[in-house]
Amino acid sequence: MKIVYGKTLSSMEESIVNNVALECGILFDTARVLYYRNIDSVQKAKEFLRPGKSKFLDPFLFNDMENVVERINVARENEETVLICGDYDADGICATTILYKVLNEMGINALTLIPERDDGYGLNLEKIEEICNQSIVDLIITVDCGISEREKISELMDLGIDVIVSDHHEPPEILPDCLIINPKVKDSGYTFDGICGAGVAYKIGYALIGEKANKYLDYVALATVADSMDLVSENRSLVFEGLKLFNNKLRTSFKYLIGDNNREITSQTLAYNIGPRVNAGGRMGDANSALKLFLSDDENEIFDLAVKLNEYNINRQAGVDEIYRQALEIIRENKLNEKNVILVKNASWNVGFIGIVASKLVEKFNKPTIVFAGQDGFLKGSARSVDGINIYNAIASAKNYLIDFGGHSQAAGVSVSIENFDDFYQAISNYLYENTEEKQHKEIYVEWKIEDEFSVEFARELDLLEPFGTGNRKPIFLVETENVLSTPIKKDSPHYSIKTREIELLDFNGQNNVLTLSLPLKKALIFEPNYSVFRDKRQVKGYLKNILILEENFSKLEIYFLRNELIKIKELSSDITYQTIKKFDNISSGFGTIYVASNYSILSNYNIGDNVEIFAFNMDKNNGKNAVIISPRTIPDNYSKIVYLDKPLSIFNTEKNTFICNKIAYLFASLSTDRSVFTEIYSYLISLEGKYFENPIEYIKSKSVPFDDNQFIFVYEVFFELGIFYVENGVLKRNKNIKSALTNSKIYNRICAISEEV
After folding, report:
1. Of these four, 184, 217, 325, 666, which has the most CB atoms within 10 Å of its CB?
2. At 96, is the pLDDT very low, low, confident or very high (cuts 50, 70, 90)?
3. d(Cα 642, Cα 652) in Å, to the nearest integer?
4. How would you classify residue 466: left for phi > 0, otherwise alpha for psi between -120 and 50, otherwise beta?
5. For residue range 196-225, what is the model confidence (pLDDT) as tens digits?
6. Residue 209, H or E segment
């Protein structure tokens, strides 16, 4: 993983930042963060720091808006029926909700049509015909769809039905021959093209009923965040105002969806809590349940629908996890992660889940990805991309092989026949090869390295940059340290506290990071600052986001490897079925194999090669390429074979093919199991009762012990396993009530066994 810092400012740039800080009454560092977001003038900064309704653009900037308002008013005057055709995702549901409520407020008879995902995206003429057979529809208004439906719209207009398209997706070369409100259409007149489908619906609503439409801004905020729109320009103000409604006047539907009504609702809440629940209905084939939730006035019905969507969300998560697992296996077997774009398919997958799976795969491999499921004899795919690669343009370059496609730069949908799949894959791969520079390493962006104490005032001012999301990332920073102590924030808590000179960090569920943090290696702690006030005391703490080891001097970790291998004896088995093979002279740089060593010194027996990466304890990436991992805590899923380079004390119980190089014996046979040695160290540990003692390694590093380091660690871990000694609040204690034989220890028995084998 590569760290990318904000640029070093030139003297001229420092002057610009300083001027923004002075004129806006903010800290230089806050202005510097803004500068990194291309907010490089006093005017831009004031605009950014003061979001709100005053920054909303006039809906009548749309060239067709006056005609749209006129046509809808005609519908009201003539008591016509209007059919709103939306989409099955959160944006489409919210857009449909907004326009339906506005039209009802105007006294217009409005009907809604939300297709299910199996019906396909966009206008469904069959469903529309069913509605028209029951009601005379005079006007259809699309929301969050329609811009690519020229032929279908022409058919509807031939039947005497007027159509208004409101959409925000990329327009095709030839537009529908009707009224269109879409900021991405060339010469639309609107000066910001980044609003979502619900944002477009709100603009129509505002043009129709004025400020009364502002009560629907919570739907706009939800849709903007859920559809991953950039939180810049007008979107920033739309979400800002929408969040006010969430926090000051929470709708019953949202209250029952999220359950916890006492916490502040932020853009993160919309992205990771509310949005997925609204989307869950569409993914599970019941998109209309979310629409009913938003349109219902019956609290009992609202509660039942919220419960249903929450259940859908739980089932969705399980389904996504299974498809993700299968996709990883396909990618590994076919080495798809070697390509510049990953296309993975399975006709049996649920088409409602593939978008989330695509996002997870992009996160894992840092490459644009399209996941395909089967539908009606063809493949339907959901595409996600990385920063700097426009997946819509890439797909459009191969449109000759497609049935249909649509979307925007970071997310798109595509349909392709099975026989054209390979040609499409080749075409999109060629396009990306010619038009992009593939990133070789996953990048993590930090503003800068913190070298002094992180100030409370700076943390407070960073809150002025809210709402955070796509296009306005939450600022993260970095501190460098060597070994640092990580302790539970309270007894039995899974969450840990890390104190550095610069800032105190919170590591949620941080048990697995304790070892990494204690290693005597230079490392970067990447964190997100958080400002809070507790009992009138202002404070700043950081949330740990990532740990990167900055040096690879594994020879400094010998006793850490030994202790980890001993501890694993308690957790793993030594009785797993495996095959014994001869020692490897060379480790290949192919795919699908993890080479495991108990200790760094083992690697001197092998020709590792230049292209095989070496990791200690855990892997910070898992792309399927062959790798060496020393004393692993877990084995990554994306591998089919495990090769132990020496005889291990314990073996991971997996379904993967497991091999052991038998020519290299145990490294631990020199550990003494003699009772007299245990008695000596037992007496020594008694002398340490009540004294500071975090763990045996930390003690060895701070004190000189009269024993071999490895022997001392081994004996301590045996006593610790038996419960004879334990550590509480950093103090060594002895349980005098425990009288246990050494043979009750798995660690002791295992070392005895290998001594006999050797």
Report:
1. 217
2. very high
3. 9
4. beta
5. 999 999 999 999 999 999 999 999 999 999
6. helix 197-209
Which residue's entry shows tokens 């295992």?
Answer: 750
Residue 82 CB contacts under 8 Å (≥ 6 apart), including other chains: 72, 75, 103, 108, 109, 110, 111, 137, 138, 139, 140, 141
Which percentage of the chain shows pLDDT scores above 90? Answer: 51
659 strand-pairing partners: 579, 643
Contacts of 26 (CB under 8 A, 6+ apart): 20, 45, 49, 461, 464
- Residue pLDDT, tens place only, 475-503: 999 999 987 878 888 877 888 888 898 99
Weakest mean pLDDT among 197-211, 355-369, 604-618: 604-618
Count of CB atoms situated within 10 Å of the CB of 409: 16
CA 23 to chain centre: 37
Which whole-number Å values give the CA distances from 659 to 594, 596, 758, in the listed order? Answer: 10, 10, 19
| Dist CA 142 CA 406 (whole Å) | 15
Full set of structural domains in the chain with CATH: 2-49+445-549 (2.40.50.460), 59-309 (3.90.1640.30), 335-441 (3.10.310.30), 554-661 (no CATH), 675-757 (1.10.10)
- Rounded Cα distance between 665 and 234, Å, is 66
| pLDDT tens for each residue of 697-748 | 888 888 888 999 999 999 999 999 999 999 887 889 999 888 889 999 999 9
Could you tell me the pLDDT band of residue 556, with boundaries at 50, 70 and 90?
Answer: confident
Decide: 240 and 55 in contact? Cβ < 8 Å: no
For 375-391, the pLDDT digits (tens) are 777 889 899 988 778 88
User: Tokens in use for 549?
Assistant: 């080891």
Q: What is the C-alpha separation between 494 and 487, in angstroms, rounded?
A: 10
Q: How far apart are CA 685 and CA 731, in angstroms?
A: 12
Do 538 and 600 contact (CB within 8 A), yes or no? Answer: no
d(CA 169, CA 619): 39
How far CA 229 is from CA of 197, 198, 398, 597, 608, in Å, comes to 10, 11, 25, 46, 45
Please name the residue that has the structure tokens 């062959």.
Answer: 626
Contact 64, 193 (CB under 8 A): no
Contacts of 352 (CB under 8 A, 6+ apart): 117, 282, 283, 284, 285, 316
> How many CA atoms, within 13 angstroms, populate the side-chain half-sphere of residue 412?
25
Establish how many alpha carbons lie within 13 A of residue 28's alpha carbon, considering only the half-sphere containing its beta carbon: 6
Calpha distance 681→661 (Å, rounded): 34
Q: Which residues pair with 616 in a beta bridge?
A: 630
Measure the CA–CA gap between 522 and 346, rounded to whole angstroms. 44
751 phi and psi angles, rounded to 5 deg: -70, -35
SS3 content of the chain, % helix, strand, coil (to 5): 45, 20, 35
Residue 534 predicted with pLDDT over 90: no
∠ Cα 44 46 52 (to 5°)? 105
Which of 101-105, 537-541, 581-585 shows the lowest per-residue confidence on average (mean pLDDT)?
581-585
pLDDT at position 578, please?
Answer: 73
Cis status, amide bond into 467, omega within 30 of 0 = yes
Q: Given this model, what pLDDT does residue 260 score?
A: 65
